[in-house]
Amino acid sequence: MHDALIEAALTALGYRPQALPCPDRSALQCGKxxxxxxxxxxxxxxxxxxxxxxxxxxxxxxLSREQIVDDYLFVTAGACGPCRFGxxxxxxxxxxxxxxxxxxxxxxxxxxxxxxQGEADTGLGLTPGFFIALLKxxxxxxxxxxxxxxxxxxxxxxxxxxxxxxxxxxxxxxALRERRSxxxxxxxxxxxxxxxxxxxxxxxxxxxIVGEFWAMTTEGEGNYQLQRFLEAEGAECEVQAVxxxxxxxxxxxxYDTRERMLLRNEQPTGRRRFEFAPLRKMLLLRLGRIVxxxxxxxxxxxxxxxxxxxxxxxxxxxxxxxxxxxxxRGGEGHMEVAKLIQGxxxxxxxxxxxxxxxGCMPSSGVSDGVQSLVIARYPEANFLAVETTGDGAxxxxxxxxMALFRARRKAEDEYRAALQTTGIDDGRATARLAxxxxxxxxxxxxxHRVAGTAANLLYExxxxxxxxx
Length: 469
Known about the structure:
By secondary structure, this protein is an alpha/beta fold. The protein has a domain at 2-126. The protein has helices at 2-12, 25-34, 41-59, 65-71, 89-98, 128-151, 160-177, 182-194, 213-217, 226-232, 242-261, 277-303, 313-320, 335-345, 361-377, 393-422, 426-434, 437-440, 453-463, and strands at 73-77, 105-109, 115-117, 206-211, 236-238, 351-357, 383-388. The chain has a 4-stranded parallel beta sheet with strand order 5-4-6-7, with helices on both faces. A 3-stranded mixed beta sheet has the order 1-2-3. β1, α5 (89-98) and β2 (105-109) form a beta-alpha-beta unit. α7 packs antiparallel against α8 and α11 (242-261) packs antiparallel against α12. The longest helix has 30 residues, at 393-422. The chain is globular. The chain starts with a helix and ends in a 6-residue tail after the last helix.
């Protein structure tokens, strides 16, 4: 979804973008062939996917090496710093050289506010409009994805949600490409999604997927198609938005600036020196955060994404500070720990699933070690960390199934408790739902009280008066 929307947004700026397909096993093998040993599988998948595409251009479409190097540029997002994936621009150079494409231009955006360039001349105009188009497309992809993950587990007709999402992608891509109103396109998407028949009176475990950025957001073989597997096992997935990663980057910059402002910065005379630049940066970061959140919620309102909240980065920092120092960076830092605590204490999810590449230093080496203390203090927490290598999908799926068994029992207990608390049975709940058209719509989502969607819907139906005939 995100790739197609970004492609359409950049087309409107006059570029000729082409989104690469989701990396598969052949991309993994290509990355292992041309990459260094001991790299993590996001590096192998992403580097291999690029090399595989360039080889296709050369060997199948008949383009010369010189034409590929001169006419093509690869743009991607980087990782978070002190890990193998965070330094993978070097892997691109090495793999491109070994594959016969030395001189091919690579531009990597990092969340630390830097750009890494594989070559000096990128041939890409990095204007404010370019970055605004990227953020706009990312936010649109986030709200559409969130709607899909809310609706798909409860669809009555298998495949109806995916068909509606395909139409939504077509509508939004056309609006971006032709520079028409995306809010009107979102309202059209809302009407299409509202027509998907759903039955939310089914107790399903809610699973939050956190961890290393690439591993938790990819939807292909890089994480064993984990989201689809969870839904096939009867779970509802809560995925992390790309905008959350941007907000975390803004929080990092603001936190570091604030800490530097507290350092002693004195003149030779002994008097403290006042600098306006840090204050200006703090104000700009605060303004950027406000604008980003408001734009996201505006898009969410137009598509019908009610009750969705972007993470409060200051709150997550406060929650995770006792377990994970805010100064430690890499991966999602303290967010991975704080989200587990928040999911337990605020009854948000039944299972927190942390996905990371095998041997990921920030996540496996640091965060997972801290999670053992969190689980000791919160024994009711249901947490599972899985490492991905590109192989061994059966073993990972088996471990996830065992964790899902406990999550499923918690969801069922929650639903039975809701039946007892509200004093209505399944039959009366079904009758009340049939009498309320708004609650039956796929775009409707019950207010949060407990983790399970079905239990929340019961509480909502019990609060509303029975309609008079």
